[in-house]
Amino acid sequence: MNAWHDFPGTNAGYVLELYDRYRQNPSAVDAATREFFSHWTPPTDGAAPASTELPITKVVGAVNLAHAIRAFGHLAAQLDPLGSPPRGDPALNPATHGIAEDDLRQLPANLVGGPVADGAANALEAIQHLREVYSGTTGYDYDHIHIPKERDWLRQAAESGRFCPPQEPVDAVGLLDRLSQIEAFEHFLRRVFPGKTRFSLEGVDMMAPILDELVGAAVEAGTRSILIGMAHRGRLNVLAHILGKPYAQILAEFRDPARAHNFRESMGWTGDVKYHAGARRAIDGDLSKSVVITVPPNPSHVESADPLAQGMARAASESCDRAGPPRLNSSVALPILIHGDAAFPGQGIVAETLNYSRLEGYRTGGTIHIIANNQLGYTTEPQAGRSTLYASDLAKGFEIPIVHVNADDPEACIEAARLASGYRAEFHKDFLIDLIGYRRYGHNEGDEPTFTQPLMYQKIAQHPSVRALWSNALVARGLIDDDAAKAMRLKYMDELQSALESLQPERDLVEPVPEPPPPKAAQHVKTAAPIERLRELNAELLKLPDGFAPNPKLDRAMKRRRSALDHPDEASIDWAMAEQLAFAAILADGTPIRFTGEDVERGTFGHRHAVFHDVKTGATFTPLQAMPQAKAAFAVFDSPLSENAALGFEYGYNAQEPARLVIWEAQYGDFVNGAQMIIDEFIMSARAKWGQTPSLVLLLPHGFEGAGPDHSSGRLERFLELAAETNVRIANPTTAAQYFHLLRRQAALLKNDPLPLIVMTPKSLLRHPRAASPPRDLAEGRWQPVIDDDRARDQIKRLVFCSGKVYIDLVTSEHREKNPSVAIIRVEQLYPFPEAEIRAVLDEYQKIEEIVWLQEEPENMGAWAFVRPLLGELTGERVPLRYIGRPRNSSPAEGSLARHVANQKQLIEKAFESKT
Predict the structure, then answer these.
(1) Could you tell me if 321 and 633 are in contact, meaning their C-beta atoms sit under 8 angstroms apart?
(2) Angle 896-898-904 (CA atoms, 0-180°, nearest 5)?
């Protein structure tokens, strides 16, 4: 038997490589290895002599054991502060590899390899050092990294102790002081406000010193912005001690939430609970060391802040003050995401966000993730909440290095933070710290955890805090005496008591809201652009680099665009051209644009072509990035196939840089409900809850054309039911010129009247001649919230109000000319509802007998439920108001084209039929 056949080739190869090195030059290996190789020879093709089988087997066994410890040592690490035994793995047992300690004692340390072999007398000592590294209170989990350079860097860092405290000493007493501050805060809140929800940090207290370490490293590296996305666990502690939110403000929110709530309402916003609040802190050092730390506000929808923080970091990393694509410097901003152990594998938005980490349009130069691992999700045990061993295993699919660390070992936690910072600085990629601790109390302090976890909470009740453990350790080392350690905690308790006593009932204790916009600011915006300017911009948009070969199928469209501005009164500008001209004019005015979504570069319907592709070379060219007139950057990116994180990312980008025009387009409007959480919790309510002023633009292709229930509706009704307190603009434009002015208007209002803009965009109308506009409408027109009919007023007896694509169906109907008594009024802006404009229209018609709201959506969808009471108030009792459209349905549209055509024909006919 040849013993080498029983082992993996890589490990046997390592031994042979050492032997070859020895044969060529014995001094190339250490003395112990020379001594070992002097007694045996490598195997030949025939059976090895019996005298050599034993040592060869032992050599390869030692190499295999070392590999197993590096790959699976984390399975034997003592990661649980509560003392549950590690899972272990048979591969970590020497006997599995056919060796014993005595065998290892006879083998050279060099067989184990790596820094642990340096200074070791033999393989046994090296293996023992290896176990100390990989199976202590830290579990290094990086064997899934496929890039050798990164894997080797991580191994060297772990085994050399490059980032461990003995190499970079921790201020042990300073760390105790920090832990005293963190613990005192929680104990004070518990004592003064018993039972009040605060989502305590206790059990994972080291999260705050880890953040201290990450922030310090980032500041030293010249980072200018740190964005921390997190849910509610430990949030108040982080706001107080990382962001510097005054104790008095936090205590006031506990003591008198009703007064704070009333104050918010008097200022025009409804506010939110204290543990959803965000904060921003500027740390001013010398010019190269100033940094702004931001924790954006978040709702109770855990992990929803993940893509927001990423988007904010991307925005902070980009310079957009000149033409071309934005200039990205990822060292400028650091995103840190703090996850829950149940939420990390449980919430799909986490995987969506992780997928963005290396994408050109979304990368941020690496995010540092921290799982605040309570080993519990509310009351759900890990085995009921995930199908993986670790809460962090999802990250392995994205080749993110993971360090599991016991939250009761402060030095191991600090080392993990330093390793994370070092890895990101070296490779500009994500890193994950799995901080394994526990939750001292129930989910929300008022909850009783012993109902569902009686044994776990028996242990927790007897378990000392990490501050107590660290204090005892320092006293034992002689670094501090017990009285001094206790005095630290009392100092912070006194500080908190003083803050509480300082509160005055009349004191304003909430953040100020943004200044309200000037009255009717949106009505005074000029959006027209002179024809000569449009011609100049259009000429640049049609220029291609020398030798560039676009798809020949685009020749006709480009030829049409070249002549579209020649005749000012011909309807020659289609939807896509109007959009490109609007973008060009906005860039020329100095406003940057970021435009993302699924397939936006070409456009879902093949209409846009913002990016040209050379059919011969595959090279790309983006005309809006090459215009000499542009004074700001233009970015356009096809997004991954997701909505929730995609829209969250753009919201975060917009929140960080509100002066940039940020646009997200759904592939079809129907798919926007995949991002409903971001819409409900951020876009539509951020102003009321947190005083934020988003101005994100959503383009939602909408229109009933027989394509079925999932390719017809942008769910207009859902946006309208969320519209209140002037929180949004919702439009359903029907012409290219209207779309041009709408985009220009949004860009012009970014600074003095920012609001989100929801646009129901067309599909079939993209190339429809009735949706095209003459150049004069762009050059001399403006946004019109309501567009009146041009029929003679004195003949009109019925007014048909409608919105969107159905207008084209009405005016192109054969019944239109046969019924001169019917006028069709387009409501292009649905919110804010254009009451004054509609009243002015109604005043023009003195002989009307009936008003109709017509829509192609079912009665329980579309705009009817929203406009019915508003139109009713305007018309009063003198003129009846009725509905024409599809009946109430549970599904938006028919699945059959034939049924769609029949139903559409019927509702159009009803618009013109005589009253019975």
Answers:
(1) yes
(2) 100
Residue 847: which of 794, 787, 886 has the closest Cα? 794
> Is residue 902 one of the residues assigned to a domain?
yes
Same domain for 796 and 757: no
Alpha carbon separation from 908 to 176, 388, 469, 690, 892 (Å, rounded): 76, 56, 77, 45, 18
**Residue 38 confidence class, pLDDT cut points 50, 70, 90:** low
Give CA separation, 403 vs 114, 369, 396, 432, 813, in Å: 19, 10, 12, 6, 67
pLDDT tens per residue across span 758-798: 999 999 999 999 999 999 999 999 999 999 999 989 999 99
**Do 352 and 253 share a structural domain?**
yes
Distance CA 619, CA 558 (A): 19
CATH number (domain holding residue 902):
3.40.50.11610
* Token pair of 70 as six digits: 């590096």
Residue 766 included in any domain: yes
Q: How far apart are CA 169 and CA 163, in angstroms?
A: 9
- Residues 558-584: what's their mean pLDDT? 96
**Does 538 share its domain with 484?**
no
In the predicted model, is pLDDT for residue 487 greater than 80? yes
Query: Residue 826 pairs with which residues in a beta bridge?
Result: 787, 802
Question: Alpha-carbon distance 120 to 449, whole Å?
Answer: 48
**Domain end call among 501, 523, 556:** 501
Torsion of CA 756, 762, 766, 768, to 10 degrees: -130
* Domain stops at, among 86, 109, 136: 136
CA 326 → CA 333, 550, 633, 634, 778, distances in Å? 15, 24, 5, 7, 28
Q: Please check whether residue 897 lies inside any domain of the structure.
A: yes
Nearest to 463 by CA among 407, 391, 417: 407
Q: State the helix-helix crossing angle for 410-427 and 148-160, rounded to 10 degrees.
A: 150
Whether 185 and 257 map to the same domain: the answer is yes
Give the range of the structural domain holding residue 602, as residue numbers without chain letter: 531-706+714-780
Residues 773 and 857 placed together within one structural domain of the fold: no
* Count of domains forming the chain: 4
Q: How far apart are CA 124 and CA 102, in angstroms?
A: 8
Q: For 77-81, what is the mean pLDDT?
A: 98
Tell me the one-letter amino acid at 271.
Answer: G
Indicate if the alpha-carbon torsion angle 661, 667, 670, 673 is positive or negative.
negative
Secondary structure element (H or E) that encloses residue 250, with its range: helix 247-255
Task: Let me know if residue 497 belongs to a domain.
Answer: yes
Q: Could you tell me the pTM of the whole model?
A: 0.91
